[in-house]
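Our consortium's second objective concerns turning raw sequence data into structural hypotheses that experimental partners can test. To show how far this objective has progressed, the report includes one record in full. It was chosen at random from the queue rather than selected for favorable results. The single chain below, 235 residues long, was entered without modification.
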Amino acid sequence: MNISIARIQAIFMKDYKEFSRNYAVSVMVFLPLILAFAYNKMGTNDIDAYFLPINLVFAVVTAYVQCCLIAEEKEKNTLRSLMLSPASLGDILIGKSLFVFIVTIVIVSLSIFLVGYEPANLFILAIALLLSSVFYIALGTLCGLFAKTIMEASIIVLPVMFIFSFGPFALTLASVYPVLDVAKWLPSAQLILLADALEGNYSSMDYIVPILTIIAWSAAAWLVTGLIYKKRMVD
């Protein structure tokens, strides 16, 4: 697969301009920051509260914004031209993901700062957060490939955002409804389990299992996204 830095940079700049012009999409980045600031003022100091705005970033910024940017390309019929251009699959997927990835990292960092969270092991947590970003970008891309307009994208991405952000809430009900215990394997729940383990005396398995789980989700999501993308090229 040939990767062209120039093509990736061109796609990146195009996404930046579209994001800055579309206020209905760009305003979403402020929601997690407002929530993080509010939680800080409320004096919350537990892992679940710290990760509520962080997981919200992945839902309403990473997945939602990525989905809308892809859907906007389809609505303007520019994605088809991009698919038929000399740009390779890697150029397009990396270029279409890079802007949202950078925005996600910035907003997650600001959310951690505003909520007052001080991770016990920032290095391990940062790896998990980066991998989670990759997973949610894949989800947003996949949803965007099915949407035809930005309005349709806003609806399609909602169930996905809810399901994959539902893990931490489902775990609180697992004692009453044991079937919900399966939600602990969702990336959002694994992220909290990892962060919680890092606060105490943890073993290598306490962080290896969550990281491998998130990697598996990311690999599966990008595999499906790549297959759907190639199918769209020949439709």
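The partners drew two points from this record. The chain has a mean pLDDT of 86. Residues 204-234 form the longest helix (31 residues). Both points have been shared with the crystallography group to help prioritize constructs.
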